[in-house]
Amino acid sequence: MDFDWMKIPYALLTLFIVVNYGMLQNALIAKIGARVGRRRGIPIWQNYADLIKNYSIRSSITHGVMYYLGPVFRLSGGVGLLLFVPSLYGSEMFSNLSFAGDLILALYFIFFGTLGMALGAAESGHPYAAIGITRGLQQVSAAELPMALAVFSVALQYQTLSVTEIVAAQQGGFQNWTLFTNPLAVAAAMLSFLGSMMRPPFDVVLAPQEIPIGPPTEYHSSYLALMQTNRAIFPIAKIVIYMNLFFGGATIWPEFFLKVFLIYMVSVLVGVVHPRFRVEQSIRWFLVWAVPIGILSIVLV
Amino acid sequence: MAHIALATGFLLFLIGLYGALTNRNLLRMIVAFTVADAGINVVIVAVGHMRGRTAPILDGAVPAAEAASRIIDPVPQALVLTAIVIGVGITALMLAYAYKLYEARRSLDIGKFMELKW
Amino acid sequence: MVSPLVLIAAPLAGAFLLGLVRCPRAALAVTLATLGLAAAAAGWWVWQLGWAGAEAVEVFTAGTPPPFAIALRMGLPEAALTLVITLTGLLSALHMQDNLAETGHRAMAVLLVAVMAYCGIVLTRDLFNLFVFFELAAIATAGLILLSADARALGAGFKYLVVSQVISALLLIGIIFTYHATGTLYLDGIAAAAAKPALAFFLVFIAIAAELKPFPANGWALDVYESSHPAFSALISAAAGAASLYAADKLLTVGGPAWLPAATAIGIVTFVAGNLLALPQGNDRRLLGYSSVAQIGLVLAVAGQRDVLGEHYHFVAFGLLASHAVAKAGLFWLSGMVAERGLAAWAALRARPPLIFAFATFVAMLAGLPPFPGFYAKWELVRVLAAEGRLVLLGLILFGALLEAGYLFRWFGFALKREPSGEGLACAPSKGIPVLAAVLAAWGLAWQWGDASAQANLLLGLPLLFALAFVLLDWLPAWVKNTLAIAGLAAWFALTLGQYDPLRLIFAVIMLAGGAVTLLASYHAHGRRIGFYPSAMLMYAGLAQLILAADTFSFFAAWEILTVGSYFLILRGRHSEPHALSYIVFSLGGAFLILAGFAVAADGAASFAVADLATLAAPVAPWVFLMLAIGFMTKTASIGLHVWLPGAHAEAETDVSPMVSGILLKAGLFGLAVLLLAMGRQKLGGIDLTLAMLWIGAASALLGNLMAIFQEDAKRLLAYSSIGQMGYALFGLAMMNHLGWLMALMFVINHYIYKSMLFLAVGGVAKRTGTRDMYRMGGLINLMPLSFISVLVGIIAMSGVPPLSGFGGRWIFYNALLTAESRLPMILIFFSGPIAFLYLFRLIHTIFLGQLKDEHRRVKEAPFWLMVPQMIYVVLLIAFALVPGVALRQVDGHLGGLLPAGGLSWDGLTITSDFGYWNPVAIMVIVGIIFTTLFLWLVFVNRRAQKVKQFNIVFAAERPFRPETTHFAWNFFAPYRKALGFLVQPVATGFWNGISGGLHAGADFTRRLYTGNAQTYAVHLLVFVVAVHLFMTGM
């Protein structure tokens, strides 16, 4: 098998860029959220400080093998997801490891980290972790549906499952973006997007009031550091998929940053002005409001 | 004549049947059945009767050569004998049953023997 | 040359001789010798007429031909029937020898007269003589009823006499007027007579019909059956029933075709009503009475179809009659061994496994299962009825047969599962020998009917013989039998390897090789494990023959064999009695639909190849498709027909669950695959049936998964998940495109591997913890690490997460969807995917993670032999994930020849479709590298991590100390129930319960017709006579 070994350093470069961007963006968004609430918010480098602090904490415990592996699964999921999808369209350098599989691989790989994380957190024996996981799973099972329908609609529209080809089909001006050629699919997908970003009104999974922080309750020190790294990568990896499928992808890094930021901001804008749904409410909400749009997009495409 | 016999036979049969189905007393039922049996036997004999012929006994009065045209049909008479014998047998058996039932329950009411049902 | 008159003379002589014998033992010897002699004479005639090529003879008693003397005829039917009668008499006499000896020689004489009378009814060709023999039989019957220890028999005997008085009156009047009109009593003479007196002959006919205990004029018979000595009931049911049926048959020959519809109508009404009314019975003998009545009704209905059955008439009628006679006599004799009368009292039989085998034989024989005569007879009957378009009758027969199977198997379940109560079993040799003889007769007849059948003799099938051999080998220790079984499966697989096309090969690998792997787990059982191997191998035999079946007969036979084998297997579970029952009822219902479908398809052809289904055309084809599809979908437990599955799979034994889930469910998929390949798309009333299947598959996937997430019982969870998985596979097949099929096959393979693995793992855990409720477990990961690994691999594979093999299935699935024609059903499928995550997480979390319970602190890893197959499955899953092409490439090519293009390209390691691509090895390597790197990094930075105890967790201001209150496990997905609970309301269960309850309530109401009053019964008889007359004169 002829494998281009240069793909590895290129992929690592992507990873490096995204990690740093993700850390900064997370801090920025936290700051925006704070300002909306008339608070000062955190400094922009706060995430770096937290990362260093977490790695240097001396007390460190483990509840067992799966507990230990949980954050590894989580971060592998994030990194893998990022690398299975090309970051920049038309760039050999940043097409990453997308030769391994198409859109379906990316969609199913999202669950890899989630599942591993869930198993690890569950082994801690902490009921809050388990409660958080079940809430998350239940919510995501409904939230995924409009996304799946939208993806399917897009795949039908472009008659391909290859991310690269889908982006290619959207080139040549923003009027070719799926956002304009198949607005129903994008609407469904963006509603689903709200549900997967852990922001209000769909943040009951991590609900800081009722269950201290959901699944990661028991994680600390370097475990938490890995998970924090993932927190920087994973949303972006996911947004990259949205960007590629619906918003024309990106050909250069600034475009990438801008689009990712804007897409992220959708969930933030919705989040800051909404209270929280209970799980059954969000399940119903997705099934009643988002799924019909998805169905329409499939029927009409 | 044959019609009267037939009608009588059927009448007896129906009377017997009616009696057997309406009397609750075992002995009365048995008697009713013998009446019905008798009716049937009359019917059988009546069916075998042919107007103007003689008894099916081959002797000087009826030579064998003319028998076929002069005697009445002997088969029903043979049948009726068998039927009577069987009827007697069954009647006896029913009476024995009635006796045993009475022994067991001290009652001859048919309505008392209904434990087996459904 | 033995004169047929011996059959009359010998019992008479014996009866006279008895008058001279004073010693009861000697009298008994005379009785048995006489009956033995008569049986030998009858047997000699059977041999002469059946094998030695002798001609039927007619004996003139007075030396002159009829009509001047009585004639007797001895042909093959007469010989066979007299053999049945005399043998039943002999064995019944043996069975009740104590009662006979006690009552004395008079009772024996009456018994001899009864047997003689029955023989006479069969042999005579004279109408009046027939009457005499009937009266003799009636008198003898009334006498023998008194043999019973039951005081109520007295009343029953009187009722019998009352009714037989009425019958004989009708008969006598009919005879005399028939004679009057035709001038002869010789049956053939009456048949030849120019003018037949309709009303007189009607009276004769209706009187003989009344002897057959037709509904509703049969209350007396049921009372007699219930209260008589069981050996005598056996005689009434088998011998008197057979004799009366033959008398009716003679009359139908005389009367000609005009009388056939009436016979059919009386017969079928009795068959259905008898079986329906048997449903609420609690007394074994009364139940057998209802069943006898019903069976005789069925044979009468068949006699009414002789015009269309033609040359098959005797094969069918005698097949059903022989099944009835042997099985019913055997059951009555068994009843004589059981001390109490409740159905559950038959649990006493468990003390003697051979008796259970006998019971199973009789039940299977009555239900018309292969390889017994009733099975061949049913096949021919249904084939002919379908060809003649008598579909209502066909439907009623199958409905009645289903009812009958229902109560018989319920009873069998009682015997195997209920607690035996005090009294137990009377096991004298004189009681056992008749039962044994009936069992031998059953299997002998099975051979005989197979031999005479125009179809294959099932008892020549090597797999079936192999399975039956385990009945004889059941005394061996379990591990020897297990080795034999595995060797047998492997050898058969190796032997037939060349005969499979790639599609069948997939199924063969799963059913045979996979079956062998699953059987490895059975090494964990100790002792002899009586009954397990015959059942399991019966199922495998059916599966083995199913995939090789070329014609519809062998397909259907294999289908029933695997059904009954798996039923016995499922029934072995400790609490599986009701579930095994619903399994067999649904399966047989499905099987009957398949039977009807095949029969309609064959349109009278004696042999019909499965592949020829493709040649069917429009008006018939969609109906055939519909029946077959529903039949197969009962096996795949599609939604609506799924209610049997959860209990059956969950309550089965640990190593049985993977067999019936991982392997058996594939039989239904195989059937659907064969069906769809042959018939393709069918439209019925404008509805595309494959589209309907698509919706059913999608709904099964969604609702199966949804129901799975609410289960507290781990095995039930897995069972519901099977419904969902089969829904996916059904969906794939129904898409009718290349990739859909490939995906279905991928599901077939995957589901076998991971469901077998998970069932074994969960079974092992349940064995160690003593519970299947997941919330009672928790934290077992350290105590049962291997089980954890197999569950972990299993759920990753099942959820479809890369890099394991489940992802391949999803990938093919999406590609298949892109070419699918209808898009809406896939919404349900899309929804069901994420729901699977919920129950899978629940499965692993609540068992292995969370808090360890105090009572489980000492549990050990699951038994070694349960782990062996699981580890093999783990390896297989990973191998299949890496190189799915090994299994799928051939099939892909094969499908290319069957379905339109759109296959996959398998160049190198990347698998490419028209839409996307996928490289399993690359995925595995990339994920592996990332994972390892991060893991090493974590180990490096976290090398000082300290293992802490169970309760060392950050908890809101308190320290937890009870695992029960800290383990979050019960009602795990409560919000889902709030949001979507309405979808899992047990609608289907309620529907089927409603049907079953309605039938029971209806039966319970109707049976109150039988008030127990002799006069009411006589009125029933008269009403029956009038009703039939009205029916015949066209209302």
Set out the fold topology.
The complex is a heterotrimer of chains A (301), B (118) and C (1035).
Chain A (H helix, E strand, L loop, with lengths): L6 H30 L9 H11 L4 E2 L2 H20 L18 H21 L3 H32 L4 H7 L8 H4 L1 H14 L24 H26 L6 H20 L6 H22 L1
Chain B lengths: L1 H21 L3 H23 L18 H4 L4 H31 L13
Helix pairs in contact in B: 1-2, 2-4
Chain C lengths: L5 H13 L5 H27 L6 E4 L10 E4 L1 H20 L1 H7 L1 H19 L3 H19 L7 H30 L4 H6 L5 H14 L7 H9 L2 H26 L4 H19 L5 H21 L1 H4 L3 H25 L15 H14 L6 H16 L2 H27 L11 H24 L9 H11 L5 H19 L5 H19 L11 H17 L3 H20 L5 H26 L18 H15 L9 H7 L4 H8 L1 H15 L3 E2 L2 E2 H21 L4 H21 L3 H32 L15 H15 L6 H14 L5 H24 L15 H19 L2 H14 L12 E2 L4 E2 L1 H22 L4 E2 L15 H4 L7 H7 L6 H20 L7 H19 L3
Antiparallel strand pairs in C: 1-2, 3-4, 5-6
Word description of this protein:
The complex is a heterotrimer of chains A (301), B (118) and C (1035). Chain A has 301 residues and is mainly alpha-helical. Chain A has one domain (7-300). Chain A has 11 helices and 1 strand. Chain A has helices spanning 7-36, 46-56, 65-84, 103-123, 127-158, 163-169, 178-181, 183-196, 221-246, 253-272, 279-300, and one strand spanning 61-62. The model of chain A has no long low-confidence stretch (mean pLDDT 90). Chain B is mainly α and 118 residues long. Chain B has one domain: Helix Hairpins (Orthogonal Bundle). In chain B, 67% of the residues lie in helices and 0% in strands. In chain B, helix 2 (26-48) packs antiparallel against helix 4 (75-105). Chain B is elongated, with a radius of gyration of 20 Å. With 1035 residues, chain C is mostly helical. Chain C has a domain at 461-904. Chain C is 70% helix and 2% strand. A two-stranded antiparallel ribbon of chain C has the order 1-2. Chain C has a two-stranded antiparallel ribbon with strand order 3-4. Chain C has a two-stranded antiparallel ribbon with strand order 5-6. In chain C, helix 9 (198-211) crosses helix 42 and helix 31 runs antiparallel to helix 32. Chains in contact: A-C, B-C. Strand 1 (61-62) of chain A pairs parallel with strand 7 of chain C, so a sheet runs across the interface.
